[in-house]
């Protein structure tokens, strides 16, 4: 059953849209402070569709992500009491608690590692503000950590280029179903 092929085709069309860099910047900004979808879902296909501009896309993603991270920092600094009840009731509370532990243990390095951790970056930005982390180290750690992640994603996609796009197009349905099976198996094993 070919469900993933049409989705892949649509994603590649959107990746080539003339306004895609603006959407990428908006998504990157929003994800760093309040939105649940990571920018990699746009950055990867955009870099794959246009390898010559991959580093430009990574730069847009990094700068917009850090700007959104600064908004998350402000939310943590000035509005944490307002969002704390929601945060406690959400699935993000355990991630927030982990981020706070990491800040107490590693300080500056917690933000740097956040760029690669499975814990959403927005949790770290809000925690940094709530814990009153110094703004300049927070910004520098965000630039380096997020930048490394996004330039790595863009670079790998650009390196794969047209060959990878063709190969993905050929095997996308198999990869998609394998991912679904792996997720279902993971959930079953987790609950067992």
UniProtKB/TrEMBL annotation:
Organism: Parazoarcus communis
Domain VTT: 54-157
Keywords: Membrane, Transmembrane, Transmembrane helix
Record's GO cellular component terms: plasma membrane
Record's keyword annotation contains Zinc-finger: no
Residue ranges of the TM segments: 20-37, 57-81, 102-121, 133-159, 171-190
Pfam families: VTT_dom (PF09335)
InterPro entries per UniProt: DedA_domain, VTT_dom
Protein name: VTT domain-containing protein
């Amino acid at each position: 059953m070919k469900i993933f092929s049409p989705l892949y085709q649509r994603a590649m069309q959107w990746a080539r849209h003339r306004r895609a860099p603006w959407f990428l910047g908006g998504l990157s900004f929003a994800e760093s402070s309040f939105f649940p979808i990571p920018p990699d879902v746009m950055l990867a296909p955009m870099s794959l569709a246009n390898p010559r501009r991959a580093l430009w896309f990574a730069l847009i993603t990094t700068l917009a992500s850090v700007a959104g991270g600064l908004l998350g920092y402000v939310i943590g600094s000035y509005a944490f009491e307002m969002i704390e009840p929601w945060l406690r009731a959400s699935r993000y509370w355990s991630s927030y608690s982990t981020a706070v532990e990491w800040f107490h243990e590693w300080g500056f390095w917690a933000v740097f590692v956040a760029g690669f951790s499975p814990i959403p970056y927005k949790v770290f930005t809000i925690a940094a503000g709530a814990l009153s982390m110094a703004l300049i180290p927070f910004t520098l750690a965000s630039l380096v950590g997020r930048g490394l992640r996004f330039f790595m994603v863009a670079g790998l996609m650009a390196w794969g280029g047209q060959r990878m796009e063709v190969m993905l197009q050929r095997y996308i349905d198999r990869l998609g179903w394998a991912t679904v099976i792996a997720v279902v198996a993971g959930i079953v094993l987790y609950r067992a």
